[in-house]
Amino acid sequence: MYWNRREFLKNTSTAALAAMAGGIPLTNLLTSCNKKNLHSTADTVILLWMAGGMAHTETFDPKRYTPFTKGMQANSVLSTFKPMPTVLDGINFSEGLQSIGNVLNKGTLIRSYMAADMGSILHSRHQYHWHTCYKPPQSVSAPHIGSWIAKELGPLNPVIPAFVDIGQRFTLGEGEELKAFHTAGFLGNEFGPFLVPDPSSGLESVQPPVGMTSARFEKRNELYHDLISNSPIGEFGSDYQKESLKRSMEQAYILLRSPEAKAFDLSLEPKHIYDVYNTGKFGLGCLMARRLAEQGARFISVTTEYEPFKNWDTHDNGYTRAIDMKKQIDGPVAQLIKDLERTGRLDRTLVILASEFSRDMMVEGRPDAKVPEQVIQPDVIQDIKNYGMHRHFTGAGSMLMFGGGIKKGSVYGKTADERPCKTIENPIVIDQVHQSIYHALGIAPDTNYVVEKRPFYTTPDGLGKPVMELFA
Amino acid sequence: MTTEKAFWLWEFLGRLHPLAVHFPVSLLLLAAILELFTLKSFQSKFRPAINVLILTGAVSAIISAIFGWLLYQHGDYNGQILKIHQYLGFIMAGLSAAVLGMLYLIRTRGGLIGAYRIVLFTTAIGVSAAGHFGASLTHGDNFLSSTLPWDKDYEPVAARQFNLAAIKSDSAKLTKQQEMELNTDVRAIFAHNCYQCHGAEKMKGDLRLDGKHMAFKGGEDGAVILPGNASNSELYKRISLAQDDKHVMPGKGKKLSSTDIALIQFWINKGAPWPDDGKQVIFRVAKLEPRNPALPAATSNLSNPVDLWTNKYFAKNNIKWANPVNDHIYLKRIYLDIIGLVPAPSDFDRFANDTRANKRELWVRELLNRKDDYAMHWLSFWNDALRNDYTGTGYITGGRFNITNWLYQSLRNNKPYDQFVKELISPTEASKGFVAGIRWRGVVNASQKNEMQAAQNVSQVFLGLNLKCNSCHNSFISDWKLTDAYAFANVFADSTLEINRCDKPTGKYVDAGMLWKQLGTINSKASSAEKQRELAENLVQPADGRLYRTIVNRIWAQMMGRGIVEPVDVMDNAPWDQDLLDWMAFNFVANKADLKELIYQIATSRTYQLPSVAFKEVSFVSNPNYKFRGMLRKRMSAEQLTDAVSSVISPVFVENDMKYNPIDKALNKDNVKYPFVRASLVANNEFLTALGRPNRETVATSRDSQANLLQALELTNGERLTAVLKQGAQRWQGQYSDPNLLIKELYSRALGRLPSEKEFAVAKKSLGMSPNTDAIQDLFWAVVVSPEFQIIY
Fold this sequence. Notes:
The complex is a heterodimer. Chain A is of the alpha/beta class. Chain A has helices at residues 5-22, 98-101, 123-132, 145-153, 175-179, 214-229, 240-257, 271-277, 281-295, 318-342, 430-441; strands spanning 44-50, 72-73, 83-85, 92-94, 107-110, 163-166, 194-196, 299-303, 349-355, 358-360, 380-381, 391-393, 399-402, 410-412, 414-415, 423-425, 448-451, 454-457. Chain A has 2 domains: 43-147 and 162-197 and 298-334 and 343-470, Alkaline Phosphatase, subunit A; 207-267, no CATH class. Chain A starts with a helix and ends in a 15-residue tail after the last strand. Chain B has a two-stranded antiparallel ribbon. Chain B has a two-stranded antiparallel ribbon with strand order 3-4. In chain B, strand 1 and strand 2 form a beta hairpin. In chain B, helix 7 (176-193) packs across helix 10 (258-269).
């Protein structure tokens, strides 16, 4: 039997509950966590993850457009797409994102995200940092933000897992590095992500095993109950292990036969809606996220999927690949916002679109710090494969936020119009992003658990500050 | 609260609240009691008295509530109790008015008597309850309960050194030793109650209590400790204020206990002795030295030393020996604890039919001799602790080294533990993965440099010591300093590391050194390899009692479900029996640090054979006043459960899944073939993860034992288990045409027993006369997910 930290923590909170019943003020105990009922503006979070580094100048912050010509000067290229107007006056998106541009009046565009400086620019470390708010490595296993939220708020509907992660496989390159932050860490497996690597077969994870009819599933469950109730181990009495096992099995059974599990069944969606979302795995992930949000999941992450040198990780052919990526995201993201708004859910659902860092054609890392291991970029471009943003850039980055109390039709932060197009106004860092999310959800800024006798906060040292200008 | 001074009268009336509340409580309670005598006839001779009581009671209740509200406006009250008290007070004021009204209605119109009585009794109980909560606010919530002997706070904080009661009179002169103990206890009180706001991190009122000079210097208003004069010392005055006084200290949290306050008063009155040369022991610190307590004499039926200690412990704690568990339970335990497998039906039979008097000892020995099975089981425990895995962060960039072969062979050959530790700390190429740690590309936090990781992991795993706090700043939970961590980390460094405080360079350096100077020195000029060699030699010497207590405690925890010290990584915590721990650690060294002998000693003890202890809440396990009664009921680990499914039903893994194949490398003289691939030899996967195998980025010395939804989903519809059960069903269908036989075989293999009549009937009904694979698969499933299969009784 293994008693880990979390159980000691849990013990503390159990004691705290018992103490409440007994009339002992909570402050008397060595409380592991502050639970205050704070004002909230959101109940649910949907994170749309642009895995691999999405260039701001190619998406939501276009700069001077230079079309491809053989023999062009690389340094002259700031954007490889035309700017296109959005619904907001004077605000342009890069070509191919017009649908999202048309719903920008429902959310806020952030143009000044600054990823951390960690020496080399590495996808896995920056993604870890983005999702946990802690720079790897850590001496204890840091929880994913989804796990923090699952732990603090639980699911809105108890049969739906609180934290669902859609679209990432862990069998690809750097899969192990991805696992390092797709975890509840010291909060314990219970709050870990429910993984749906492929939304088109997501239903399989919440229905009886493939090939098992529901009649057989019911019969099997009945058999399990009959055998347990006739088992002689009853003489040992009930205990923690047994009850915990039985309870979890019961929960799984309830989920697998619950009507809510239909949220995972995308075939139930009307065809014309399904078609808008069906731009690939990411688009269908957005659809599933919407259905899960409707059924009471708490934190849903949908990713374009990180695979080294694939998707947004454009080390070559940046221009042509960005066209594809935009096709994947533009329709579904806009439709997600519209659907949420139509059903009245957008007010209490915070949708965030983000990436671990941005990209540039010339500058690797920060403008002022030369970083090793750069992609080779010829000064004169002869081949279209060299036309695009192929280097990692942390001096700026674009994010979108919709709903959940966020201002509508607003822009935050500004970048320079010339290379390296870095942030010049209102920089925002990950601690602020996280604390803004916690703020929207009403999770106290000093939320922490004592791990190995040290407090571990939602943001480092509990110092993250929300950016209040983002909120309406 | 309020910043400007309010009109004095309101404040004055507010303060009358505690006085005024006594009226409604007593008046209404008395009215209710008298009402009991009128149950037979409403118009009894008490009626006029009751009427007056209710009238005055209701009026005073309303006045009290108003005064209470005023007090709240001007006082510094908040919290859960206040809320309850406040609501209850208002409701009761309202109810008492209602009682009065009903009484009036009864007099004018009649009827309503039943309702009136119910409301009256409710009000009487309600005002008493409101009074109780009010009293809790004034006197502290545990004012009453703390005097009860069964209250958990009743026991004075453990390990106080200084015995105040033993000092006959205030005028007695203290010895140097007593002065030191007194001072240590006082500072322990400061550390646990005051440092949070008056320490290195926060200096409220410019006051720090974490050092002699600073404590005597005082805060912004001057000295707080006047030696020899407690009653005029601000510190004493503030801690002795009432709980509800806004100036009381600690300002947050619980008021100090009366014994703590008395101790501080005594200390100040004695001149506040604070020896400079005293060892700075504030937090409980376990002794480093080994200790060999004299073994209690053997009794008529006990000879295993573990049992002699348990016997003594039981006698002291009034615990009776329970009968040892039966053969069936015992065999399953030793199989799972020693080799990680469930016994086969033939093993159960052979064991049952073994008539040798010492068969339990003989079988334990036999299991320990199954070298590969033993190694494959304990591999998982050590992989967790040494964060060794086949896949994971770091390998992709060559920043991590696998030590599986070294580890497996060390376990297989039962390498003496001192040698085992030496080879990990001062490693060869094959064992370097542990201290090398995981090297991440890019810049990492100073407290996570590989040298510091090595220092943290070596101290956590081998010494049960947490260096993580003080690798960033001086610890608040122990006396360890930042420089201690850097000195230790420098053992693993080629060039001296610059000390960083909270990731900021300080420009300071410290020489490589031991955490405990008495264990020897490190030549700070030497190469890191040489320094590590010195460290290894220093650490494994018998004088390092801590190293051996730590491992003995870990093995004990693995087998008994809970350590003698808990958590197992905090060896400074108090053990439930110091003698047992000390003796076992001493004896372990005397036995050449032989891990198998240690396991043998535990597994053959009557202590191990006690019935397992069921508990309903984890708090039972972590309770500092935990009393040992027997091993805790355990659940199979991810690997044990997977291997059980493999051996009972059908192999879960195939040869291709194997990341380390010991058969090629071990000297397989007997040409042993294994019927299935053990779970400890495969890469982590969704099934093992769900069942609790950790991702081994960081040291893990304990695992989640609680079932959860994600795990249950994996068991209910996970691909892997479904496929294995199906495959097994197909095989079994071919083997057993007779369903009766199939059911019996399944029960013998999975649970080591035949089904009861009822179970048999249920299973039979589900299988039908000629079972198809679906039916068999479902029966497998129902048995595999049942508590009896997964729990070790």
